[in-house]
Design brief:
This protein has 403 residues and is an all-alpha fold. It contains 17 helices and no strands. α5 crosses α17 and α14 packs across α16. Bound molecules: protoporphyrin IX containing FE.
């Protein structure tokens, strides 16, 4: 665990728009009274994995059945599709049980969330991509898990699969029978269960992992990642002064609550409000952020991938934009080279661009076309992956990164 001082944690939290009282000691003290389950208990989520899924996937891996499962999954795409035939009976029975929305899901809120996603799409893709995506490389366990897992050796394909998840979550019909998100979540949950079985067999991963991470991707780890996505993005949109009604904010949270449930997070860990989410985030996410060699390598590859499409800006500009949305502390950790001219443009131009787009200022700012091309380019990166023939389905891994 990192040993950041309380002051440093507060400063970093504030820079990320994740304000709150942080506790670098990171003892779990978050009462489930503030959760979906609303039970006043304090259970450590770092000691909870996915009992319903892990033993099943472990036995499928041990019996060599995963390749056939992946093949059967190729035609299983829409939420309304029946569970495919030809699966092992225990997997089929499991999927019949989990392949649906939780009883507390509110379809009206999910629909409002979909409209909100649509209205915010440009900002969301930018923030998920350059904010959360790069932040994931300074979440040490996540960076190491990704690096040493099978997908770590082919980040282009891994990024494409992650885009599939983001695209399916953000689609207008994400939770409807014609949407994909419930199925995509189930495939992701099974993938995580496979990683829990496979990574402990990797000598390279075992050599670098911390003692508490002997079994990866606990409920606590998934909550950390949720805060680097939903809570962080919500905080950034607020700090940019973007108009969001309380119903919209509530709907955006609800979408993530359902997403967490579908990934196997227990309801007593899922925050019931943004205030509760921010409190949880202030001591589960901010204090653990730190650089690792694996994370630096992944960040470098991710910047290289965005550099393969023409966003109309230089790589130096992209580095500075990531610094701008994530803080210079994180930029320094990742050793992102400085480009102070680009930074000057961003500091002045981005707030003006947002104000103009949001109708808060009538003045077309300098650099409007450049920012517009950047946000549209990043959105297209997501949308192309989601809609083109190269749609990259999520497949369950059968091994680790080759050493
Ligand atoms: C795989 C999403 C949390 C580690 C995946 C995939 C998705 C995904 C969509 C499938 C894509 C692929 O196979 O590359 C999420 C979401 C999370 C979350 C939405 C939380 C909200 C975590 C956490 C960790 C983690 C906390 C580790 C600490 C991994 C690894 C893979 C994976 C190692 C498999 C890569 C491979 O070998 O192919 N995740 N994840 N994930 N995830 Fe997560």
């Amino acid at each position: 665990m990192q040993n950041l001082s309380r002051r440093r944690v507060l400063t970093l939290g504030a820079a990320l728009g994740l304000v709150g009282v942080a506790d670098p000691a990171r003892a779990w003290a978050w009462s489930s009274a503030d959760s979906i389950a609303a039970t006043d208990t304090v259970t450590d989520p770092w000691g909870v994995w996915d009992d319903a899924t892990d033993p099943l996937v472990a036995s499928l891996l041990e019996n060599g059945q995963i390749p056939a499962v992946n093949t059967a999954f190729e035609s299983w795409i829409n939420n309304g599709d029946p569970v495919p035939g030809g699966l092992p009976a225990d997997l089929s029975a499991y999927l019949q049980r989990v392949n649906g929305l939780p009883s507390w899901a509110d379809q009206a809120k999910l629909n409002r969330g979909a409209q909100f996603n649509n209205r915010m799409s440009m900002y969301l893709f930018l923030l998920y991509g350059l904010g959360s995506g790069i932040m994931s490389t300074v979440i040490p366990r996540e960076a190491r898990n990704v690096y040493y897992s099978e997908g770590g050796a082919d980040m282009k394909s891994r990024a494409a699969k992650t885009f599939t998840y983001g695209y399916d979550l953000s689609a207008a019909d994400a939770f409807q029978p014609s949407g994909h998100f419930v199925v995509t979540s189930n495939k992701t949950r099974l993938t995580h269960a496979a990683v829990r079985h496979l990574l402990p067999q990797s000598p390279a991963w075992r050599a670098v992992t911390d003692d508490q991470d002997f079994l990866p991707i606990s409920n606590g780890d998934i909550l950390v990642t949720f805060h680097s996505l939903g809570t962080y993005v919500h905080g950034r949109l607020s700090s940019w002064g973007i108009r969001m009604s309380s119903a919209e904010q509530d709907a955006y949270l609800h979408m993530w609550q359902v997403a967490l449930h579908l990934l196997g997070v227990r309801d007593d860990f899922i925050p019931a409000s943004w205030a509760a989410a921010r409190r949880q985030s202030s001591y589960v996410l901010t204090p653990i952020l730190a650089p690792t060699p694996e994370g630096r390598n992944l960040a470098d590859i991710l910047f290289g991938l965005t550099g393969q499409i023409d966003l109309g800006v230089t790589r130096g500009f992209l580095h500075e934009f990531a610094r701008y949305v994530l803080s210079d502390t994180i930029g320094d950790w990742l050793r992102l080279p400085r480009d102070l001219v680009a930074r000057g443009l961003i500091e002045v131009g981005w707030p003006a661009y947002v104000a103009f787009r949001e109708g808060l200022s009538p003045v077309v700012p300098n650099g409007f076309a450049m920012f517009d091309r950047l946000v549209r380019g990043l959105a297209m990166l997501f949308l192309n992956n989601g809609t083109s023939a190269t749609y990259t389905p999520i497949t369950i891994p059968t091994g680790n990164r080759p050493s």
